Amino acid sequence: MSREQKAVARARKAFETGRSKPLEHRIHQLKNLQRLLTERKKEIVDAIKKDLGKSEEGTQLYETLGLEGEINMAVKKLKEWAAPRPVEKNLMTLSDTVYIRPEPLGVVLIIGAWNYPWAITIQPLIGAIAAGNAAVIKPSEVCVHTAKVMEDLLPLYIDKELYPVVTGGVTETQELLRQRFDHIFYTGNGMVGKLIMEAAAKHLTPVTLELGGKSPCYIDKNCDLTIACRRIAWGKYTNCGQTCIAPDYILCEPSIQNQVIEEVQKAVKEFYTDDPKSCPDYCRIINQRHFKRIMAMLEDSTIAVGGDNDESDCYIAPTILKDVKPEAKVMQEEIFGPLLPILSVSGLDEAIKFINRGEKPLALYVFSHDSKVINRVRDETSSGGLLANDCLVHYSVSSLPFGGVGNSGMGCYHGKFSFDQLSHQRGCLIKQLKMEGMNSMRYPPHTSPVRKTNPICVCLLISPAGI
Questions:
Q1: Are 348 and 218 in contact (CB under 8 A)?
Q2: Active-site positions, per UniProt (predicted)?
Q3: Which among 1, 66, 143, 222 is least buried, having the fewest CB atoms inside 10 angstroms?
Q4: Distance CA 255, CA 260 (A)
Q5: Which residues contact 221 (CB under 8 A, 6 or more apart)?
Q6: DSSP secondary structure string, 221-262?
């Protein structure tokens, strides 16, 4: 057996013992995970610094604080989430017990992403543990140092048989995907998402795909451009643009393009100084392959601000592109880097048409003082999430589902949505062996000359609409 096969087999064997199911065990594992984040903060920070150039404060803000909040919520709410949920009855089941019982799915495969390697890998693990599953954790090999820290530390804090860590690259991931799982949770790009679905289909395994796409940002000319551009600059250049819900491009009227450029530039200077390269809060592109991919997008667009770069350091300055055409290279795929194209539209109508011509994005941003503008964008488009007058922060709200639609993904997670996504909602009906007189209405013969009851009454008793 391969290393991957052994890890999956051990996880399934451990799950079959039933020890992951009691709420006490789940809470204990979650608290241990919380302890890991507290006690091993330095190792986590150092690894992410080596992989992505994030500062200690940036790692806490964007990686670990959210996880700690998610764990606290799961521990506090788990008893409520896992409790049987009573449902409405029909006339045929008035004296019976009818409820939905959340149950573990089994063994979950979690394939993490490199851009927020702890947040994006561990958050679905929190849901898997809370739901009572076993989970095989596959951190992204692109973040070499972070993957190593996960491999070393997780087994010291949580059950290493129920929650094994499997490291490696494409070959190891392919071997994992040949195994049978009860759910696969993947965060990454659409091309790999298709391969995940193809592999899952062989075992009829359900999937959660958190993908991405080109998240549009429409700026109404009547809004406060200073505040809007400050928030857009924060959302775009955080993590050097390597955020699945970063605003990918701006749509605005030509009359405000220059002011938008000026305000974004002003915010970049405020956040990252005149020399972002030396600023500890400005990250780096993950590797040279992605550096070259992003730089190639600049070939047929006009740089208004930025453009400075250093391949040896994987550094690309915060960059704004003006008068960008829809057919430009930068508009053909998700940027996932610090390039911010601005496209001119005549107004809201054209912006909505432009957005709807593309694939459904993971996030859609609109900046306006006018609720009618916001409501039109909401009502006349489709996206995984909608955020008005800010960027990114909807990800932090655990009471909102986070997920895509269409090409930007399927399924959702965060808070109770993680628990529900990784649980089987088992419908249960418990009857008593009595009151057979009432039950006999449904038994044949139905065509007897002397009917036991009116057929219409039987339909009313059996049909869910009969109440």
A1: yes
A2: 210, 244
A3: 1
A4: 10
A5: 252, 253, 255, 256
A6: TTS-HHHHHHHHHHHHHGGGG--TTS--EEEE-GGGHHHHHH
DSSP-derived 3-state class of residue 72: helix
Give me the residues paired with residue 184 across strands. 109, 207
Dmax over CA atoms of the chain, in Å, equals 93
**Fold classification of 3-212+412-425 (topology level):** Aldehyde Dehydrogenase; Chain A, domain 1 (3.40.605)
Specify whether the CB–CB gap between 134 and 29 falls below 8 A. Answer: no
CATH class of the 216-401 domain in this structure: alpha beta
Q: Is 244 annotated in the active site?
A: yes
pLDDT per position in the chain (467 positions), as tens?
Answer: 899 999 999 999 999 999 999 999 999 999 999 999 999 999 999 999 999 999 999 999 999 999 999 999 999 999 999 999 999 998 888 889 999 999 999 999 999 999 999 999 999 999 999 999 999 999 999 999 999 999 999 999 999 999 999 999 999 999 999 999 999 999 999 999 999 999 999 999 999 999 999 999 999 999 999 999 999 999 999 999 999 999 999 999 999 999 999 999 999 999 999 999 999 999 999 999 999 999 999 999 999 999 999 999 999 999 999 999 999 999 999 999 999 999 999 999 999 999 999 999 999 999 999 999 999 999 999 999 999 999 999 999 999 999 999 999 999 999 999 999 999 999 999 998 888 877 777 888 877 655 555 554 555 455 554 44
* Domain ranges, ordered by start, for the chain: 3-212+412-425, 216-401
- Which residue among the candidates 63, 70, 210, 263 is catalytic per the annotation? 210
Query: Residue 27 to residues 21, 118, 165, 182: CA-CA distances in angstroms?
Result: 10, 20, 20, 22
Alpha-carbon Rg for the chain in angstroms: 26
Q: Is the peptide bond before 84 cis (omega within 30 degrees of 0)?
A: no
Find the catalytic residue in 143, 244, 283, 314. Answer: 244
Q: How far, in Å, CA of 28 to CA of 33, rounded?
A: 9
